[in-house]
Amino acid sequence: MKQNIILLLFIFILSGCSYFDTGEIQNVGLLVDTAIDENAWSKKGYNGLLLIEERFDVQVYYKENITSEEEINEAVDELVQDGVNLIFGHSNIYGDYFIDIAELYPDVHFVYVNGGETSENVTSLNFNSHAMGFFAGMVAGKMTATNEIGVIAAFSWQSEAEGFYEGVKYQNPDAHIRINYTNSWTNIDIATGIYKTMQQNGVDIVYPIGDSYSDEIIRKAAADQNYAIGYITDQLSIAPDTVLTSTIQHVDELYEITAEQFNEGKLAGELLTFDFQDEFITLGEFNDAIPETFQVEINDLIKEYKETGLLPNEQ
User: Contact 99/117 with Cβ under 8 angstroms?
Assistant: First the structure.
């Protein structure tokens, strides 16, 4: 460590300027709180890093299973020594930690997702997930045969759960929505237990809004000949007869655009929010079981929402 610091100081003296003085991307780092291939969300974060690598021809680095303050501090220090001046934290857990350490690295810009804290060199990227939940809820309300629909959420603050509830009720006032929480992004056992109870209570469509367990719940729904709504990525291919559509967050593409903004000196330390209007949230491919006329109706309503900012129940 001491030798590396001396070497960096020596380069600084020879060059007469800081490695970061250009204001452009030098190298880029990614912190992930799981393994990069553990779930759809982590895979998308890693794919975003690869898009940046290809687009800007820079070195990219990632650190897996980084969750504690000590691990974050150590990982950031190592990334900075590797010449990284743009660091993505692929979870809302990184927000408070980035705020605490950002002043120590004034030439590094920190970016994380779905949080409310920012500073001069800390940006929060937020997905407005209410609308995607609403339109998926309309699909569920249309396709349920039992009028029993389930939501398996990770946390109560997920706005897609509320949106889904409203969408179901808008489309089908007679439907009953059961919502339960795992209080974890990763606990598959709790999620499958919740699904089993819901299935026993007649639920025939389930919306698993947790990146680590959505795949497993979809497979269980397929085995029970029920329907499901995919999450984070287009999950139709997992069970083509089961997945009605998916609520997709294009975080990989958002990372590339964020890197572009940084490279052009336009990335401010602020809270940024994205929705259908920005094309970073979309619905996935529709199941052929959904009537074509209803598919057209949903697409038209999404187009209208993008133009007006108003959901069907707000007009």
Answer: yes
Same domain, 119 and 145: no
Tell me the average pLDDT across 192-200.
97
Expressed as residue numbers, the domain containing 142 is 130-248+285-314
- When mean pLDDT is compared across 15-29, 35-49, 135-149, 283-297, the lowest value belongs to 15-29
Other Cβ atoms closer than 10 A to 278: 16
- What's phi and psi for 129, nearest 5 deg? -90, 0
pLDDT interval class at 1 (50, 70, 90)? very low
pLDDT band (50, 70, 90) for residue 23: low
CATH code (residue 77): 3.40.50.2300
Q: Are 259 and 241 part of one and the same domain? A: no
Q: Which of 166, 298, 177 is nearest to 245 (CA)?
A: 298
Same structural domain, 62 and 75: yes
